[in-house]
Fold this sequence. Notes:
The chain has 16 helices and 16 strands. The chain is α+β, with helices and mostly antiparallel strands. Bound molecules: adenosine-5'-diphosphate (ADP), zinc ion and magnesium ion (MG). The site of adenosine-5'-diphosphate has 16 residues, from strand 1, strand 10 and strand 11.
Amino acid sequence: MDYETVIGLEVHAQLATRSKIFCGCSTQFGEEPNAQGCPVCLGMPGVLPVLNRMAVEFAIRMALATGCEIASRCRFARKNYFYPDLPKGYQISQYEEPLATGGHIVIEMDGKKKRIGITRIHLEEDAGKLVHSEDSGLTDESLFDVNRCGVPLIEIVSEPDMRSVEEARLYCLKLRQIMRYLGINSGDMEKGAMRFEANVSLRPRGSTRYGTRVEVKNLNSFRAVLRSLEYEVQRQTKILQGGGSIQQETMGWDDVREVTFPQRGKEYAHDYRYFPEPDLVPVDIDRKWIEKVKSELPELPTARKRRFISQYGIPAYDAEVLTTEREIADYYEEALQVGADPKAVSNWVMGDVLRELKARGVSPAEFNISPKHLAELVNLVSDGTISGKIAKTVFEEMVKTGGHPREIVEVKGLIQITDTGAIEQVVEEVLSENPEEVERYRGGKTKLLGFFVGEVMKKTKGKANPRLVNEILRNKLG
Ligand code: ADP
Ligand code: ZN
Ligand code: MG
């Protein structure tokens, strides 16, 4: 029997606000444990939460970017469960009246586009962090850190629209990319900016009914999402092929052994005893506010890619790479504003710039080469001042010193030699120093031309114009 994979993802994304969702505590990552707590996020009796307006605005941005319908009124709900990382004994989330519903994003696979439905986007607060004995060095103890309690999250629930692990991967990457473009999520996976729950089921290919799903919880990296999905697909396939049936259950993921394991019986909504949060009024979202947020949305990656292709005439591949990150796309366009060839600048950005950014672990804004300087470097090549090869040397110097390309070229005397007389002189030298090679060349070994070019370049420290060198050599040898 051939089975089809069905995947739906729940993504928890941290909203990049400075303060928590219901109190003024800082969300800054990496502070001392328990340095960021107050009576509200500690769940003391008698305190009242106050909603962070920016968190709502960030969620609205995401809802608009994914084509969701934004409710004119949404409401917070208490999700009750007893868990040591949750001091209140409940999480403030949204349940029956979420902020937004019914959107989608588009992923692209082998050039084919596919829509993945977004069921809903709702706001909620994060829980704290438990440090268990193995990590803390203590035995039989768990430590609790309140810093994360009340950090704003959106939960993005997808439709069960993905049909392979690869589609799930592209979906996660797309969400991250969009949120980073919107400036609402750092995308920093190591800092817990995105966490996932993966739902996966199988069904006989051709069937229109969904199979029983398993939910894998607590996935903290793309890798964990993918590996756990692969593992589950295999596990379920084996069970079904052996004539067994799948239990609906919640699984954990063991990052070290790379296996899923049954965690607890599946909770149903009634287990959480949801009820409207009595400490918060419903949120009425003004249409004017939505319109304002909409008008301030940045151009999103897909639209930007399309524009890059049509406006700058660069290949689709280039446009894809350049728009992967908003900052890179900004860098590229700033360079073009100086007036440089779009494809030449693209080559530099996709190659040398991205490589250096990665090697140095810096963002374009922190990079030693400004877009303007890069464009000037590109222009030094296109106007013949320096050769492409010398440009690489100049680039390296710019990376190191942050210097201006023209100054580097002048100070280091790297200007291309285009004076025919000067090149002829060097060519003569090379020919007279290598009489045997000249003989062999004239005897038919024309491949030796490369050798002569190399010698001339050596003598001119790479500064001779390669086209002229070739031309003059051919003349003299012929
Ligand atoms: P729960 O609270 O039980 O996790 P949600 O409605 O919040 O339920 O999330 C359900 C998730 O499971 C959604 O992402 C949905 O697309 C996915 N899902 C539902 N049915 C299936 C199925 N048969 N196979 C795979 N995924 C499914
Ligand atoms: Zn607080
Ligand atoms: Mg779930």
